[in-house]
């Protein structure tokens, strides 16, 4: 009997709605990013999923600002006349001065307003603006760096937009939130021109950090030792680094997405973030109330069909005792931890073999790389599987017809006559067609750089070639998943739901949307204490492992120790019974609302209120506190014992087959959820207040704080 979905965090009695007291009628919010209606990377997901909550908070006074990209606008944006009269005058004046600025609604949840600026149309001003940038900030941008040139154009145009908007003083208070270095120049110009704008700068990953980690540097143990100017210069990104660092120092409020990135920013950008703003998701999009376990079973069946075809001729393992693991993301072999995962799989294979385990692990690597087409052998496997299915259906229909005719005349069928020679011939031909002279392929596509591909070279080194003796099989799918694929016709969300475990042992991961997506879909995952997601879960959950969130230590352990720990996680997961995995998925899914923007959005609200208080200290009051503290809010351990076979007591599941049908020890999800609910404690309350009735000493404090931020 399928287990029902329990109540989630937002319905817990201890987690009350946060009392919002700031008056936003006299304020307007501009959120500026290169990825507004322009998908480039993860920042697009952040802005897109957060838009609904922000639009609900700010209403008609919320505007997203991004670049005009015609191909994206045609499919994502409805162009309309500006609804705000002040903004309409601003856009009309810019267009009359030689710019092209568009206004519309972004067709996503929340339908936020967008202001899209055509940077290419004003490219004639590039040299003049680059000269002005050099005179103001001593930052020179080389002519060949197209991305940096776009950042210059975008920065000057957004500063122009905000400057025109401020001339009308309606509404009187403007908040401008800039994301990443590509938008950061606009912030620097706003502060230099002394525009009355409360500014926020969010870095989702530092430029220098990403470059250093890509070069196999011992990054986290040497953060305090790097000569940042030299390192940036050696990598020819010094001008980009200067833009990023200037934006971080000029902002009233500097934020980043995780505690681990906050440490990185403090050393590389030389400013400690004021607020950590974790990335969230719209959990409603992923929630399938009472059905996520059923959806897992349906998606798993579709993956099993692919596996049947991929391993035809070598399908000598039980698919019902087969676990699907996966890693997905950008093809950064070391940064994403694919090297560690492969080494752990080799060690796991050894453990499963020496322990005579009947469990088979199939590990999927979903990382886009350069290919020229599907692998012929892989396509043939799916064709053979389909042919076998068609043969079985044909024989079934013939068998059914004979059975029907026998029953019609009132006779029991003679089983020996139900299948004739033709039926046996058809079946034998189908069986012979499944014979295979080679091992099932590792890669589903033809790689353009097969001999130098890091995943394939590592597979050759560890010797996991999908042989019959191996208990661990590997499938490398060097392309993003699509429901229109002739090979594995599933979209990413459906594929994740069908897997048993996501493995993301990243070395450099400022946040980590992949394990977060696993969590909201009820799929356990492995991440690290060097990822923002892993650090966030360690802060908020007393025992993450019990909830299916395995945190790998890559910060304080060597590579071999981390690999052994990862192998241990995988081996313990393989030892779980089916019932234990069901219980663990329920626990994992119960965390989903912890990652909902309705909870995590309060950190962005905190940053905006702090910026208003610093920029307009006579109007808004800000009481100092530690905005990154999570004291008093930690998920407790589940009421029952973590589902690890080594730690199980009588109250937790013990044996797979015996317990699956045991009615005497029924798992009561509602009871477990209720016990957890009692233990949830209130998160920290935001100390913001409405407009001042009295100012007193707090105003003096704010003026001091504001002057300090200007001097920095």
TrEMBL record:
One annotated GO biological process: glycogen biosynthetic process
Record-level Gene Ontology MF annotations: alpha-1,4-glucan glucosyltransferase (UDP-glucose donor) activity
Ranges of compositional bias, category Acidic residues: 659-673
TM helices/strands, residue ranges: none
Keyword terms, alphabetized: Allosteric enzyme, Glycogen biosynthesis, Glycosyltransferase, Phosphoprotein, Transferase
Gene Ontology cellular component list: cytoplasm
Bias type Polar residues, positions: 691-712
UniProt xrefs under InterPro entries: Glycogen_synth
Enzyme class per UniProt: transferase
Superkingdom, natural source: Eukaryota
Family indicated by similarity: Belongs to the glycosyltransferase 3 family.
Description of how the protein assembles with itself and partners: Part of the GYS1-GYG1 complex, a heterooctamer composed of a tetramer of GYS1 and 2 dimers of GYG1, where each GYS1 protomer binds to one GYG1 subunit (via GYG1 C-terminus); the GYS1 tetramer may dissociate from GYG1 dimers to continue glycogen polymerization on its own.
Name of the protein in question: Glycogen [starch] synthase
Organism: Amphiprion ocellaris (Clown anemonefish)
Gene from which the chain derives: GYS1
């Amino acid at each position: 009997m399928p287990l029902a979905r329990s109540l989630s965090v937002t319905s817990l009695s201890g987690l009350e709605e946060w009392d919002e007291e700031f008056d936003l009628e006299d304020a307007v919010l501009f959120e500026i990013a290169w990825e507004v209606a322009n998908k480039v990377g993860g920042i697009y997901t952040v802005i897109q999923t957060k838009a609904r909550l922000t639009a609900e908070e700010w209403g008609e006074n919320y505007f997203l600002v991004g670049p005009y990209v015609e191909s994206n606008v045609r499919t994502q944006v409805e162009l309309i006349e500006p609804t705000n009269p002040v903004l309409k005058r601003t856009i009309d004046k810019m267009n009359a001065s030689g710019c092209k600025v568009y206004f519309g609604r972004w067709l996503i949840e929340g339908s936020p307003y967008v202001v899209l600026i055509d940077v290419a149309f004003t490219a004639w001003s590039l040299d003049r603006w680059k000269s002005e940038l050099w005179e103001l900030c001593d930052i020179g941008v080389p002519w060949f760096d197209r991305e940096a040139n776009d950042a210059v154009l975008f920065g000057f145009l957004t500063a122009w937009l905000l400057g025109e908007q401020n001339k009308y003083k309606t509404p009187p208070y403007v908040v401008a939130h800039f994301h990443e270095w590509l938008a950061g120049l606009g912030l620097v110009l706003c502060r230099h021109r002394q525009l009355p704008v409360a500014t926020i700068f969010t870095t989702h990953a530092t430029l220098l950090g990403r470059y250093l980690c890509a070069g196999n540097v011992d990054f986290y143990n040497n953060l305090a030792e790097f000569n940042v100017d030299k390192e940036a210069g050696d990598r020819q990104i010094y001008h980009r680094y200067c833009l990023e660092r200037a934006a971080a120092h000029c902002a009233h409020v500097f934020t980043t997405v995780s505690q681990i990135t906050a440490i990185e920013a403090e050393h590389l950008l030389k400013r400690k973030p004021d607020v950590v703003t974790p990335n969230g998701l719209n959990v409603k999009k992923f929630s399938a109330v009472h059905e996520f376990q059923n959806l897992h079973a349906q998606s798993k069946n579709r993956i099993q069909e692919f596996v049947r075809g991929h391993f035809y001729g070598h399908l000598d393992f039980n698919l019902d005792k087969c676990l699907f693991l996966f890693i997905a993301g950008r093809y950064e072999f070391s940064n994403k931890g694919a090297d560690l995962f492969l080494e752990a799989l080799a060690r796991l294979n050894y453990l499963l073999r020496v322990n005579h385990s009947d469990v088979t692990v199939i590990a999927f690597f979903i990382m886009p790389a350069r290919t020229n087409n599907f692998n012929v052998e892989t396509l043939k496997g799916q064709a053979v599987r389909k042919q076998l299915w068609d043969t079985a259906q044909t024989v079934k229909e013939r068998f059914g017809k004979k059975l029907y005719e026998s029953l019609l005349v009132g006779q029991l069928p003679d089983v020996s006559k139900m299948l004739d020679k033709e039926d046996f011939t058809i079946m034998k031909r189908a069986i012979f067609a499944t014979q295979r002279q080679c091992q099932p392929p590792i890669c589903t596509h033809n790689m353009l750089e097969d001999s130098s591909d890091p995943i394939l070279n590592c597979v050759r080194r560890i010797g996991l070639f999908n042989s019959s003796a191996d208990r661990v099989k590997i499938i490398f799918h060097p392309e993003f998943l699509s429901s229109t694929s002739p090979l594995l016709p599933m979209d990413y969300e459906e594929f994740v739901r069908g897997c048993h475990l996501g493995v993301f042992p990243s070395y450099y991961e400022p946040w980590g949307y992949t394990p977060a997506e696993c969590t909201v879909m009820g799929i356990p995952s492995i991440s690290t204490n060097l990822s923002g997601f892993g650090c966030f879960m360690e802060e908020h959950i007393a025992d993450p492992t019990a909830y299916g969130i395995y945190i790998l230590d890559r910060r304080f352990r060597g590579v071999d120790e981390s690999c052994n720990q990862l192998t241990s996680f995988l081996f313990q997961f393989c030892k779980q019974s089916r019932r234990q995995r069901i219980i663990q998925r329920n626990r994992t899914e119960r965390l989903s609302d912890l990652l909902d923007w309705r909870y995590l959005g309060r950190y962005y609200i905190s940053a905006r209120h702090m910026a208003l208080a610093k920029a307009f200290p006579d109007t808004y009051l800000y009481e100092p506190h530690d905005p990154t503290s999570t004291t008093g809010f930690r998920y407790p351990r589940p009421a029952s014992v973590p589902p690890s076979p080594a730690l199980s007591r009588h109250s937790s599941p013990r044996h797979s087959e015996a317990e699956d049908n045991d009615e005497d020890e029924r798992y009561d999800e509602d009871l477990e959820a209720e016990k957890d609910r009692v233990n949830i404690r209130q998160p920290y309350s935001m100390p913001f207040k409405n407009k001042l009735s009295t100012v007193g000493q707090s105003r003096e404090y704010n003026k001091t704080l504001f002057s300090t931020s200007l001097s920095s």
